[in-house]
Amino acid sequence: MIKAPTNQASTNQAYIVDALRSPTGRRKGGLSHVHAIDLGAHVLKALVERNAIPAEDYDDVIFGCVDTIGSQAGDIARTAWLAAGLPLNVPGTTVDRQCGSSQQALHFAAQAVMSGTQHVVAVGGVQTMTQIPISSAMLAGQPLGFPDPFSGSKGWRARFGDQPVNQFYAAQRIADHWGIRRADMEAFALESHRRALAAIEAGHFAREIVPLEGVERDETPRATTLDKMAALEPVGADYPSITAAVSSQTCDASAALLVVSEAALKRYGLTPRARIHHLSVLGDDPIWHLTAPIPATRAALKKAGMSLSDIDSVEINEAFASVVMAWLKETGYDPARTNPNGGAIALGHPLGATGARLMTSLLHELERTGGRFGLQTMCEGGGQANVTIIERL
Fold first, then answer.
1. Other C-beta atoms within 10 Å of 24: how many?
2. Which of 86, 122, 156, 251, by CA, is between 20 and 30 Å from 346?
3. Three-class DSSP labels, 55-86
4. Which residues form the Thiolase N-terminal domain (predicted)?
5. Which CATH architecture group holds 14-135+164-392?
6. Catalytic residues
7. Residue 223: exposed, middle, or buried by beta-carbon count in 10 A (0-12, 13-18, 19+)?
8. Are 99 and 377 a contacting pair, CB within 8 Å?
């Protein structure tokens, strides 16, 4: 039996009224010239225009963004709202939980509504990876343009020694531990592209995408082949199974959702599309780095009084193919209902925007298929994972 929501101290509920996103622009593609602030402003403006809430009545804007330097600096949640021409009185704050930043932004918004302290919150994320590229140093755990954050820390070295904090290392380690071959990951990646291309052709993303600068559809999926994937060199000698083909794509994108209270539903005559049924976050070993979705999913289902048989669709970020494949091996969930329209290998991983993008696609997939419950999770820097369960209404 499914329990009542367990995340709030009171009976306050948090509802999703709307969810939308930009297309995912490939690196140096159609959105590469768009300033990060304007990319975020695009989805915020559309969100406000599509919903019958006066813009000055919004309580807050909470956005995820990683690498808040250059065009992404200066509290982009606030600057994007202002660049959209929206009221000065509405504040904004930017969240960095690494890859899970905008999923955490959704959690903060839902918690604000559940607490009764806010009633209307715009939530989302933005990342322009063409302009602020992720580097090999970043992937190795070093913020772009800065020294290794772990060097010189006596406490870190006392606890973890000199073990590498490196996503490539973790992805290879996961593949080795769970017996996932390179060929298996390439087949998984090919299916991600196939699903994404099929979803585009079928118009599954049409309702969730707000075109920008002439870009009307996701640019990142491609009709590749197993032979092309097999010909790629590994990203490094120490990671023989990890290539660009089995890794998430860098891209430029933004996404936004509208989260409101029941009081706001009544006041503005809104129709909710989903209810936040559960939200949680869990830490795991930072050296394994990418495994946290496994224990986080188990913990979330236990807290919610659910099992995966209750879940109609799952979105788990395809940071690397081995991450999702290990999760599937451990949970036994149906691969056909996991990232059914493709994942980040095909659709891209715009860091701070990915959590909101996944939730947007999850909600629309539940609506398209008539599913009731959807679960979203993703691996995050430092060995962390958020889990969100929504109920379609």
1. 31
2. 122
3. HHHCCEEEEECCCCCHHHCCCHHHHHHHHCCC
4. 15-262
5. 3-Layer(aba) Sandwich (3.40)
6. 99, 349, 379
7. exposed
8. no
Q: Where are the domains of the chain?
A: 14-135+164-392
- Structural contact between residues 65 and 352, judged by C-beta atoms closer than 8 angstroms: yes
Q: Which DSSP letter does residue 338 get?
A: B
Asked if 20 contacts 256 with a C-beta cutoff of 8 angstroms, the reply is yes
The position carrying tokens 């695009």 is 42
- Mean pLDDT, 10 residues at a time, the chain of 393 residues: 49 94 95 97 98 97 94 96 98 96 98 98 97 62 52 87 88 98 98 98 97 96 96 94 96 98 97 98 95 98 97 98 98 98 98 98 98 98 96 98
pTM: 0.94
d(CA 326, CA 243): 17
Q: Percent helix, strand, coil in the chain (nearest 5)?
A: 40, 20, 40
The 10s digit of each residue's pLDDT in 141-189 is: 444 444 467 777 899 889 988 888 889 999 999 999 999 999 999 999 9
At 43-54, the pLDDT tens digits run: 999 999 999 999
- Residues 195 and 104: their CA atoms lie apart, in Å, by 27
Q: Are 97 and 236 in contact (CB under 8 A)?
A: no
DSSP 83-118: HTT--TT--EEEE-BTBTHHHHHHHHHHHHHHHTS-
Map tokens 């600096």 to a residue: 73
| CA–CA distance, 351 with 68 (Å, rounded to integer) | 11
